[in-house]
TrEMBL record:
Keywords associated with the record: NADP, Oxidoreductase
GO annotation (BP), single: steroid biosynthetic process
SUPFAM superfamilies to which the protein is assigned, alphabetical: NAD(P)-binding Rossmann-fold domains
Gene3D superfamilies from the UniProt entry: NAD(P)-binding Rossmann-like Domain
Protein's organism: Rhizophora mucronata
Name of the molecule in the record: Cinnamoyl-CoA reductase 2
One GO molecular-function entry: oxidoreductase activity, acting on the CH-OH group of donors, NAD or NADP as acceptor
Lineage: Eukaryota, Viridiplantae, Streptophyta, Embryophyta, Tracheophyta
Length: 262
């Protein structure tokens, strides 16, 4: 599901000029891992946050395949090795930069987005334990991070649009009506999520709402994507204790729980 008042389908257009890169080794220079030397194509520079996530790494590969010049953010220097395990060396060598930028640090995000024409925000937090590690405090921090991302996009002179990954969880937890159809106008009830400790749903809901408020305030184009489920190749082996019951609908509710139609 995509929330956007003017555009529903996203299309990656081919750039007019494909960038060339010099052959360089990977090295860390301060807080940025310089990987390639840009020669042309600056007008197609985009930034992907949390490139060490499964979604982020997949988006990086797709953007590179369509000829975009890609800058990636990670939150800690140690995340660089995680990203290298997800992205092949051939694609790593095509990246413009890998920048360490904390989601809670507005200045670092502003620096990371500088010169980019679009920002793909994939995730504010990567929890190795899956949904079981997501707390009420994390939900609050996610909303703050969303505001920072939008603020940084607004401060970056060239950023024209932010593509923001939310979740279907931001839409489905409303009145208990099994016949309802979920669309882009639906929002999860925040009190319902708090009462039932649905912290991931709460975090995605408040974060997306915060992003929309900021986008209107800054007059910045925003597209939010609300996927129902993101799966890595290791699913469900990695965390079957939590992921499989969650899919069946009995992680927080009985297994007979009926999920809405989308």
């Amino acid at each position: 599901m995509c929330r956007y008042r003017e555009m529903v389908e996203m299309v990656f257009s081919e750039p007019l000029v494909r960038p060339r890169f010099t052959e360089k080794g990977n090295h860390c220079n301060g807080q940025a891992f310089s990987i390639g030397c840009l020669s042309v194509g600056e007008n197609r520079l985009v930034c992907v946050t949390s490139g060490n996530s499964y979604l982020g790494s997949h988006m990086v590969k797709q953007l590179l395949a369509h000829g975009y010049l890609v800058r990636v953010t990670i939150q800690n220097p140690v995340d660089y090795e995680d990203m290298r395990r997800l992205i092949e060396d051939e694609d790593m060598n095509k990246l413009e930069n890998v920048v360490v930028a904390k989601m809670q640090d507005l200045d670092s995000l502003c620096n990371a987005f500088s010169g980019c024409h679009a920002v793909f925000h994939t995730s504010s937090f990567i929890d190795p334990h899956g949904i079981t590690g997501y707390s009420q405090q994390t939900a609050i921090l996610e909303a703050d991070a969303a505001q920072n991302v939008m603020e940084a996009c607004g401060s970056a002179e060239n950023v024209k649009r932010c593509i923001f990954t939310s979740s279907l969880l931001a839409s489905i937890w409303i009145a208990q009506n099994p016949n309802r159809v979920i669309d882009e106008g639906c929002w999860s009830n925040e009190e319902f999520c708090r009462d039932r400790k649905l912290w991931l749903a709460l975090g995605k809901t408040v974060a997306e709402k915060a992003a929309w408020r900021k986008s209107k305030e800054l007059k910045l184009k925003l597209v939010t994507i609300c996927p129902g489920l993101l799966m890595a190749p290791s699913f469900p082996r990695a965390h079957k204790e939590s992921s499989v019951p969650y899919l069946k609908g009995n992680y927080f509710h009985p297994i007979s729980a009926v999920f809405p139609r989308v």
